[in-house]
Amino acid sequence: MAMALQLEAEKCTGCLQCEMACSYENEGVFNPAKSRIKVFTFHEEGKFAPYTCTQCEEAWCMHACPVEAIVVDMATGAKNVLEDVCVGCKVCTIACPFGTVNYEPDSGKVIKCDLCGGDPWCAKACPTGAITYVDDSDTTYERMRAWAQQAPSAPARFNPPQPKSVQIFDRES
Amino acid sequence: MAWTGNVLRVNLTAGTVASEPLNKQWARDYLGQRGLATKYLAEEVDPTVDALGPDNKLIMVTGPLTGTMASTGGRYSVVTKSPLTGAVACSNSGGFIGAELKMAGWDMIIFEGKSPQPVYLSIQNEKAELLPADQIWGRSIWEADGILHKLHQDPDIRICCVGRAAEAGNLYAAIVNDLHRAAGRSGVGTVMASKHLKAVVVRGTRGVGNIKDPLRFMQATEAGKKVLSDNAVTGGGLPQYGTQVLMNVINEMAAMPTRNMREVQFEGAHRISGEAMHEPRQSDGKPNLTTNAACFACTIACGRIATIDKGHYTVQNKPEYWQASGGLEYEAAWALGSDTGVDDINALTYANFLCNEDGMDPISFGATVAAAMELYEMGALTKEETGGIELKFGSAEALTQCAELTAHGEGFGKELGLGSKRLCEKYGHPDLSMTVKGQEFPAYDPRGIQGMGLAYATSNRGACHLRGYTVSSEVLGIPEKTDPLATEGKPELVKAFQDATAVVDSSGLCVFTTFAWTLDDIAPQIDAACDGEWTTEYLLEVGERIWNLERDFNLRAGLTGKDDTLPKRLRKDAANVGPAKGMVNDVHAMMPKYYAIRGWTPEGELTEQTRQRLGL
Known about the structure:
The complex is a heterodimer.
Chain A: E1 3-7, H1 17-27, E2 38-42, E3 47-51, H2 60-64, E4 70-72, E5 79-81, H3 91-95, E6 102-104, E7 109-111, H4 121-125, E8 131-135, H5 141-149
Antiparallel strand pairs in A: 1-8, 2-3, 4-5, 6-7
Chain B: E1 6-11, E2 16-21, H1 24-30, H2 33-44, E3 58-62, E4 76-81, E5 88-93, H3 97-103, E6 108-112, E7 119-124, E8 127-132, H4 141-152, E9 158-161, H5 164-167, E10 175-177, E11 181-183, H6 188-194, E12 197-203, H7 214-230, H8 233-241, H9 246-252, E13 289-293, E14 303-306, E15 325-326, H10 330-338, H11 345-358, H12 362-377, H13 396-408, H14 412-416, H15 420-426, E16 435-436, E17 439-440, H16 450-458, H17 471-476, H18 490-504, H19 519-529, H20 536-556, H21 568-572, H22 587-598, H23 608-614
Parallel strand pairs in B: 1-6, 7-12
Antiparallel strand pairs in B: 1-2, 3-4, 3-6, 4-5, 7-8, 9-10, 9-12, 10-11, 13-14, 14-15, 16-17
Helix pairs in contact in B: 1-2, 2-20, 7-19, 10-11, 10-12, 11-13, 12-15, 16-18, 16-22, 18-20, 18-22
């Protein structure tokens, strides 16, 4: 079963615990400037939204890399940057439609989310459940369920709907 | 480690910046933030200086846990001599700028002198420079923030700034960071403006990494977070209602100071409470509250983000106030609301926006308006003197007019900007000023919460709830319940809260964690991060040392034990309703015991023995 990060902006409070967990796991320092996940604040609307790589199946970054420095981690499906191979050309940062591959000036390489090898620290650090690590076919399940719940329900069953006869297959044939 | 070891010294007179090493011994003795900066201030500034003169210094300071993953580890403080009280000022703020300063590689900034021209300080990691502030001087904080973001072309810079109130000499001006978080009390913003320093812009990309024992630190901070999330206040009440969770609670026990503290219960409290902020309004079906929000690293997230009803008279033709911004916290809702008798939640939110936009302490502002309303109603202040404002209790229009004038430093707002003590003295009724050492009271009536009376009277920065919040014990039963109407045991309780709070305020953590945490939860986090051994016992010693250092500064500044008192109203006029009906605050019955356990003389001076014991 493949897993994916599920980001639910409506639960985010903008505390940046995810950014610190990410930078600490990857760089050994609490430093949002080096985080692979980024929380955006839309101040005038009172909105916060965490955002990071979605690990595209056909990853633009991976296909664009001229030196094959971005590879698939077969265990997690993450697209990982091989730091020894990366030449810092930044083509992947241009190719990524979502802006989630970024150049890191101190190392001269690019950085992106690697799902921490299957145990993402951002999800563990998030205090509100805005970031979770779930079955990748379920990332929208809760959202669907929430919308489904808003569908009108029958007030009282005085006139329960009658089952109507349906015929799916033509039994004659 | 956990400290960066670097101090940035900015001489505004000469226009120079310089880096110097942090005094490590002082860090060991005073931990960081409030304690450490007070040590620097006490060593470098003569306590008798004019607070608004060039000889006063202004220190912006982080704690050792600022910028780490410890929950709420994003605090910073501003320490200086207060122009409002003449005592030491230490105002604490969350938001993001404290952590950013630490990420840039600095423990603190010491501002000295006075710039000949308005300037702002720009910090990008190790690079710091003073730049001309012509474009932002005279502007509101919100305007200046927008201009600075455009100038610096970097969405990730963090800014703290003073507004037009500070520039006009308002004595309770705040330094506002991240648009709506504030080092709010005692006029620290006034001092900043007096130095012609408009703003500090920070970008830090170095990070905080020098943790003594990283694995133990992660375990300790994780354990701390679990305690916070499991606790009913920090894990439930605060995120849902913010500090406003207290409005109905305190009102029901009749400890809600109302109409300049004449009364102890406000009939309109339910209309301005945390619960009211959740109720959908008629016009657009949206509640006042948009969302809760966290400061840096905070897993509680008590911050309120709110909007004003677009159809409300205050903003009808002002779309610039239609956006979401920092909403009512309990203290603001109380001072702007109960204390003035105004129960219009939109008017209060608007006044609160103005306090953020132009940098005013909403407690001191609201309480000063309340005092002015009482003067007006008794005829001591006339309509001519208010510039035509009908300054009656309960008038939302009067409140919002006063907020506009005071925020902009215009007309009658200039007088309101002097604070309630000076206003009441000027109009011949000094007893109507509800202040200690010249600073206005917060939202807990000490007639119904006896320990708070002692905490207010002895607070080193004048009336303040955050120096010894015995409400925790007396009302909420944290860590254990004491009788709010009793005076016995309160001197010990007040001292314990004061010392422990001094530690929290010096660590980089938020005092709201102490609804759930004791020092036993905090000590392991500090100990895993910082060099040396940091036990609860040692931290309490540090807290007591900080308290006595502040006291010593105040005594040297000319304050005496006589200043440790409450306004006559709270000592002589009994509460009119509720459990405390018929009671006054018996502060002077508690004082001798308090002085004795502090190791002070009966006059409130530090004894030689106490100095030696604490290494002062």
